[in-house]
Fold these 3 entries.
Entry 1:
Amino acid sequence: MSETPPQSPRHRIPERQVRAAHTATTVTVYQAYSPALGLPAARDGRFPAAWKRERMTWIKPSFLWMMYRCGWAAKADQETVLAVEISREGFDGALAQACLSHYVPGVHADREAWKATLSRSPVRVQWDPERDPHLNPLPHRSLQLGLSGPASRAYADEWTVSIRDVTPLAREIHGLLRAGDTAAARALLPVETPYPAGPLPHLGA
């Protein structure tokens, strides 16, 4: 059961809202890789040549959604969790040209219009349920941003400012949760606040 208390209408988090750790110039997103890819990336602060730039890659501004996806760095080939700091210019540009990964009436004029936009865009968006520290789903959703083609290459080689291995942090938080100390675990979570992306009607937000 989710431990998040009910919110008053005034403080209710919008169903679709971009939240992230961000500065005036950067946004932090998370990915998980095998140690063979993740450790060199963190060591060098950039993705190695073995990182396949032609494939779609999904980035996640939510630390807890990343923990849900990688099982607290326990799933195969996801044992190394990276915090990737990218430029806001790159992130904003990706959001501007993104298309929802599925057809949504009211957002798209019709299914054919959505298919046409999807075929042109190298960026996909999914809104998946946000997670609490115990990885239970919450009523509001978290952004998942899929980058392919030129967007994937730009992410790896132009937007990336720094890459940190946050696997030890993930394991420490998970250990506290398993020990029943949710308050201490929460205190270690990265601070993610609403990102000033403005209205994103083409993404249903």
Entry 2:
Amino acid sequence: MNEEQVGNSLPSEEHHEGGFRPMSELIELDDLDISRGGPHYGAFIEEVRRLMDRARLACPTDELALETIGVLKQLNDKLDAAIVDEWSAPTWTRADLPSRGNITLPPFVVDKASRDGVDARITFRTFHLGGNRAAHGGQVAVAFDDLLGMAAAMHAGEVTRTASLTIDYRSITPLDTELRVHAWTERQEGRKVYVRATLHDGERLCAEAQGLFIVLKPGQQ
């Protein structure tokens, strides 16, 4: 995103009091520092995603399970030394990475974000499997929630939280396929921001969503 796209959607100092902190550094401005986590953070996140993909379908032997448990324990012990608080983590600062480097989200790339809406490309991987090579509906919901929230915040120029989210699953959402998401605000009534979104595989509609997001007052969580 650029400065024009961001508009006034950035949280202020007041929002940090008991709620959101100032996050101007988390949006892709010309002077954004995307060095947090270092130059290898993207590769680190990708390897974690690869591990998640394999764990989703792995059926290890006893020997492999014990060996893997030992390796993972050692790795977790190493990572303990790197744990920081949520506001210091790279997760929300890495606008140069898919889903801002957030491992909890299906990886997506935002092509456009403005007051008029958000356009993104998203790929559900093996980890997001629901069954029969289709993405789990809950994973689709996670993606919609994040991108609808972005659309609501961009339109309102304020920090928002999800109040309600309804999803209609129209057809199978495939794995390992680049899909298109379009999210936009239908209207705003005071602090209520009504949003919609669609998920497409080419011309085929996979799912659509509608939600209500609430603009937070300063200090609200």
Entry 3:
Amino acid sequence: MTVVESWSRVMNLLQECAPADHADFPGPATEPMIAAAEERMGIPLHPDLRDWLLQNSLDLPEEDMDDDVRCHGFAGFPDEGSFFLGIREMEKLYDHHSRPGGINPPDQPDNPFWRNEWIPFLSDQDAWAGKFIDVRDGRIGTWFTGEVTAVGEFDSLADYFDSLANMLTNVSQGSHATCSTVEGRLFWK
């Protein structure tokens, strides 16, 4: 399954079980927006990430941005404490993490906290934890400040979205342990 097919499955399930949350999702990024961000970051995005951004760019409108948080996104999805980033927020968080020489810390090339080939696509508001895609091979990893970074948690963005679709299926069936729906929105217990 492609990333577009997997994301479409997620969006269809979200529309079924949480239509109010689904309605909050904005339209797609454009090729010029993506190309400009790639140029500013100095790295091409993985094709899966590009394809996903062309479906939905999840940047909040400027008037909804809170100056007291580092990262912005649509709260409550995919879980209670994190959210997907739009192209503007990806670029901002990438700039925060990237380092000259490409690795942080530079003396740990085999086990770094961050590599410049990793593009964040999901974060918490403090930018202390999230998920990234490795532009070299499309694998998905997880970072958490102060802990070892996990690379290869999912083989692809499509695989990650499939896991979200499975979670939403459980929510819609009333069998998810910590999430249900209330008035068309996901509700985390």
